[in-house]
């Protein structure tokens, strides 16, 4: 029942008051919701959210994934354009993020009704025209800025970096034809193309709720909900349980659709029904039609019509004005409810010649309608915050809601009633409502900044997860017998079956060819009390003409350096076992053989591909004739690194190189390696991950700069992953980006020097120097001066940003691939938590000031249930190669000794046949003397 306790101010005769009050209150009664009703709405909203998450789009509340995985973290930077369509106006905005600060410029455009309800082409042409005007206004027509598009309607998205949004259905006042079911980003791009006057790089499309949440989260990290109470209404929030692999994603609930399945019928009044019937989308957005700015005025008008028809208002005089749909705008509601100038307000705004008493009744109607709207939104919000609290298993939740929209901002009581209702209905949550100052455009720009990071460089977490999954698929493909021939990852068996076990000993030579240095080492492993290693090494030159000349010259050079080293070590007369670290992809069927599949990095000596490098080296040594060597093992540098680190940490089962090139190896279960016989135990597999993407898998994330690097390389189309991430290419990537920026006038005042245009002038070591926080600036000055440019202070900061972007991307991509390997190890072992060690080497990893930290962090984020130790290989992969050689040497020695002993027992075939007959005797000898080995010898083939 409703209470009749108002209208005390009415200026009518007392006897009439009672009846008037009674009748008006009776009319407004259905708008007054009890606590129980609000609790019910909260419960229905909650059920709607859950159903939406389960059914993915087919329920009343759509729960659309936004592919926004995190709120801003302050690292966003750069200039972005934001286009903001779907609220009261269209807004174009330029946002410049600089060190946790955002500068904004914007211009507002109205969208005429005939455009809102014309054809899709007209609508997008109109937007393109507004953008053109804005770019003129900003003097940025030629800037080709990245742009974020706030599109405040329900859209289906697939991933933020695919940049598309399929309009599910128009809402609010829009009804342009040929848009529903189409990608609005493509429509905007086509309109821009039709204008043929400027270009935009649209990098993100976002709902206004998401934009608002992001804007507010820029100020308050606790902001994980976005609410719009404006022309339309909607909420988004960070949901934890979207996908088993991801911890959080922002979901655009589209809560305006609550009730579209009839679940709100019990609170819907005849006035609401009327408004729904007259709307452009009858039957849809029922919750929105009870709560948002576009409809509240209309509801009020319907009530006023009814009251007037009943003679309770305006002396029963129904004017044409009152009969006009849309005449009573929500902003009038706000004005009227602001008590001052009430009578004037009603008269002026509505053109209704009523008395002041009429005005009081009108105000009462407005109050009932707006209060209900705020309460309903409060009930909805209570459902959302309670869900988040439960998702997180908390007794109490502190959270901030970023809010925008004319209703929230302009109405005198809406915000208070909303907050009060939320508090009452969700008592375990402390909810702060933070109004967004700059609209959702700033948020769209922030999301663009994040999306941009993915597209151009700093790969965001969501694509990293994709990349990790792709990488895992590729690993499996490379291991399969039938799929290996077409796999990008070659997954080469190495015939190394275990890491050092502490029993290795001896005197070894290690050759280490393929990194930035060619090194020869002598490694002595002794066993007095404990295992100790002594090493001596020398670096030799490998001149450009040798690595690009003939294979014979290259191996002659290696043999010559080895001769020199042995001479210096005084061991030319000894035949020491040699381990050969050869840092290129090699096909092996045993430890001491390696057929080079293809050269990589800087090497291109002729006549080596397809050949066994051990044979080539032996040949070169023999040709000299001044010393002898016994090459017992050829190992990749990753394997050498894993073995070096395995010497110190028995848990080490992965080896990675992040240097001139990049690669990884790990211990795989033999049963999974189709290319090698046997099921028992493990074998180290050289993944050759540098070739990841050579089958086109990385095309989505490769940039124009990556393509240019590839085109200019000695092996186009090959090692595409390596070319995005490794030391040989990163400096060049930075140079190419700077050239482009200079051409666009963004750095160096547009000046391009011949040095800047010279390939290789900017090296990866320069990135490391510039990113050092202390000396970075003076280093940058020195490096840029050498490039012939006169940098300004802004230039320094831009150059350093470019370096950061490129090195961040590298660390993230490597993290994704490494995470793929760790996931595989975890699965192979069938453990809930993986404890493992990764051995690492390479100049980029070692020299870059921030690389290691970023890599570790990204890996730990990607594979949360793992305790990974990253162990830097202090002594290069030569030591590891010596360990492999030690094992090979021990096995070979063992076989040799056995063979020697057995030679005394060696019998003729006739004798053997004779012996075989005496099998009983044989068994006895076998068991007593040399069990299986003898049996083997005694059994003729
Ligand atoms: C923000 C956003 C708009 C959004 C609007 C809602 O300002 O930038 O995209 O649609 O709020 O407000 P309105 O009240 O205009 O519908
Ligand atoms: C280790 C190995 C080299 C390897 C190098 C990679 O030190 O001993 O064989 O190739 O790391 O580093 P770089 O940065 O020189 O390519
Ligand atoms: C749209 C939402 C939007 C909201 C607020 C609704 O009509 O469906 O996508 O967020 O209005 O602008
Ligand atoms: C090679 C790998 C090597 C890596 C690191 C790549 O170019 O193909 O075999 O491990 O560089 O040196």
TrEMBL record:
Residues 224-450, 654-887 form the Hexokinase C-terminal domain. PROSITE patterns: HEXOKINASE_1, HEXOKINASE_2. It comes from Sparus aurata. Residues 24-218, 461-646 form the Hexokinase N-terminal domain. The keyword Ribosomal protein does not apply. This is hexokinase. GO terms for molecular function: ATP binding; D-glucose binding; fructokinase activity; glucokinase activity. PANTHER family: HEXOKINASE, HEXOKINASE HKDC1. It catalyses: a D-hexose + ATP = a D-hexose 6-phosphate + ADP + H(+); D-glucose + ATP = D-glucose 6-phosphate + ADP + H(+). Its main location: cytoplasm. Keywords: ATP-binding, Cytoplasm, Glycolysis, Kinase, Membrane, Mitochondrion, Nucleotide-binding, Repeat, Transferase. Its EC number is 2.7.1.1. The gene is HKDC1. Pathway: Carbohydrate metabolism; hexose metabolism; Carbohydrate degradation; glycolysis; D-glyceraldehyde 3-phosphate and glycerone phosphate from D-glucose: step 1/4. The lineage of its organism: Eukaryota, Metazoa, Chordata, Craniata, Vertebrata. Belongs to the hexokinase family. It is found in: Cytoplasm; Mitochondrion membrane. It is a peripheral membrane protein. It is an enzyme of class 2 (transferase). Pfam families: Hexokinase_1 (PF00349), Hexokinase_2 (PF03727). GO terms for biological process: glucose metabolic process; glycolytic process; intracellular glucose homeostasis. One of its GO terms (cellular component) is cytosol. Gene3D superfamilies: 3.30.420.40, 3.40.367.20.
């Amino acid at each position: 029942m409703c209470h009749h306790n108002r209208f005390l101010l009415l200026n009518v005769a007392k006897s009439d008051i009672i009846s008037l009050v009674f009748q008006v209150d009776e009319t407004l009664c259905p708008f007054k919701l009890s606590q129980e009703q609000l609790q019910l709405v909260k419960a229905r909203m909650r059920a709607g959210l859950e159903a939406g998450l389960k059914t993915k789009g087919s329920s009343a509340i759509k729960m659309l994934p936004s592919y926004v995985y995190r709120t801003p973290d302050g690292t966003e930077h750069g200039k972005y354009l934001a286009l903001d369509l779907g609220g009261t106006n269209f807004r174009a905005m330029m946002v410049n993020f600089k060190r946790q600060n955002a500068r904004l410029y914007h211009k507002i455009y109205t969208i005429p009704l005939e455009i809102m309800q014309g054809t899709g082409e007209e609508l997008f042409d109109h937007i393109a025209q507004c953008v053109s005007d804005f770019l003129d206004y900003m003097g940025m027509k030629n800037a080709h800025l990245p742009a974020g598009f706030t599109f405040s309607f329900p859209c289906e998205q697939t991933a933020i970096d695919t940049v598309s949004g399929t309009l599910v259905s128009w809402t609010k006042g829009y009804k342009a034809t040929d848009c529903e079911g189409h990608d609005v980003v493509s429509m905007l791009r086509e309109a821009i193309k039709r204008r043929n006057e400027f270009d935009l790089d649209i990098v993100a499309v976002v709902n206004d709720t998401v934009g608002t949440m992001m804007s507010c989260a820029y100020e308050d990290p606790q902001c994980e909900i976005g609410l719009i109470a404006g022309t339309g209404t909607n909420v988004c929030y960070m949901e934890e349980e979207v996908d088993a692999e991801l911890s959080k994603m922002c979901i655009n609930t589209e809560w305006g659709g609550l009730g579209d399945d009839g679940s709100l019928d019990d609170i819907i009044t005849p006035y609401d029904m009327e408004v729904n019937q007259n709307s452009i989308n009858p039957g849809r957005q029922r919750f929105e039609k009870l709560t948002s700015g576009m409809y509240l005025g209309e509801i009020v008008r319907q009530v006023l019509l009814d009251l007037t028809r009943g003679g309770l208002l305006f002396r029963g005089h129904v004017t044409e004005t009152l009969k006009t749909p849309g005449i009573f705008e929500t902003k009038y509601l706000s004005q009227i409810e602001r008590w001052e100038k009430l009578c004037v307000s009603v008269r002026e705004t509505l053109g209704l010649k009523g008395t002041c008493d009429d005005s009081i009744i009108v105000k009462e109607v407005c109050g009932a309608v707006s209060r209900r709207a705020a309460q309903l939104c409060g009930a909805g919000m209570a459902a959302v915050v309670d869900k988040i609290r439960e998702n997180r298993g908390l007794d109490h939740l502190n959270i901030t809601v970023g809010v925008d929209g004319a209703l929230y901002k302009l109405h005198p009581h809406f915000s208070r009633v909303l907050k009060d209702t939320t508090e009452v209905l969700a008592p375990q949550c402390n909810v702060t409502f933070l109004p967004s100052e700059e609209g959702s455009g700033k948020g769209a720009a922030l999301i663009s900044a994040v999306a941009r990071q993915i597209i151009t460089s700093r790969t965001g977490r969501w694509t990293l997860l994709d990349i990790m999954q792709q990488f895992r698929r590729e690993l499996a493909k490379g291991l399969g017998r039938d799929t290996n021939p077409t796999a990008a990852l070659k997954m080469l068996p190495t015939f190394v079956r275990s890491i050092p076990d502490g029993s290795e000993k001896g005197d070894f030579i290690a050759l280490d060819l393929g990194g930035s240095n060619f090194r020869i080492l002598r490694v002595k492993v002794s066993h007095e009390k404990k295992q100790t290693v002594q090493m001596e090494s020398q670096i030799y030159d490998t001149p450009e003409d040798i690595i690009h000349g003939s294979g014979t010259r290259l191996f002659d050079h290696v043999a010559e350096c080895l001769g020199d080293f042995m001479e210096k070590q005084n061991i030319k007369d000894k035949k020491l076992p040699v381990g050969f670290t050869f840092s290129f992809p090699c096909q092996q069927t045993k430890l001491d053989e390696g057929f080079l599949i293809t050269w990589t990095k800087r090497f291109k000596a002729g006549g080596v591909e397809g050949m066994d490098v051990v044979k080539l080296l032996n040949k070169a040594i023999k040709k000299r004739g001044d010393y002898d060597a016994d090459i017992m093992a050829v190992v990749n540098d990753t394997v050498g690194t894993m073995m070096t680190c395995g010497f110190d940490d028995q848990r080490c089962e992965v080896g990675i190189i992040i240097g001139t090139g990049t690669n990884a190896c790990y211990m795989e279960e033999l049963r999974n390696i189709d290319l090698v016989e046997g099921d028992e135990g493990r074998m180290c597999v050289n993944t050759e991950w540098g070739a990841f993407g050579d089958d086109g898998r990385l095309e989505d994330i490769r940039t124009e700069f990556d393509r240019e690097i590839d085109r200019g390389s000695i092996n186009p189309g090959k090692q595409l992953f390596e070319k995005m991430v490794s030391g040989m290419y990163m400096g060049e990537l930075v140079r190419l980006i700077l050239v482009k920026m200079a051409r666009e006038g963004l750095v160096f005042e547009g000046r391009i020097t011949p040095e800047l245009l010279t390939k290789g002038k900017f090296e990866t070591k320069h990135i490391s120097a510039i990113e050092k926080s202390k000396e970075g600036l003076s280093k940058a000055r020195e490096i840029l001066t050498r490039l012939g440019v006169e940098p300004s202070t802004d230039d320094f900061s831009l150059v350093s940003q470019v370096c950061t972007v490129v090195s961040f991307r590298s660390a993230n991509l490597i993290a994704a691939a490494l995470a793929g390997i760790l996931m595989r190890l975890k699965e192979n072992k069938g453990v809930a938590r993986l404890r493992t060690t990764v051995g690492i080497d390479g100049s980029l990893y070692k020299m870059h000031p921030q690389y290691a930290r970023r890599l570790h962090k990204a890996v730990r984020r990607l594979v949360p249930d793992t305790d990974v130790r990253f162990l830097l290989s202090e002594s290069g992969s030569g030591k590891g190669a010596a360990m492999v050689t030690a094992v090979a040497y021990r096995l070979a020695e063992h076989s040799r000794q056995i063979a020697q002993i057995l030679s005394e027992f060696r019998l003729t075939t006739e004798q053997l046949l004779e012996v075989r007959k005496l099998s009983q005797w044989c068994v006895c000898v076998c068991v007593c003397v040399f069990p299986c080995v003898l049996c083997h010898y005694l059994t003729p083939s």
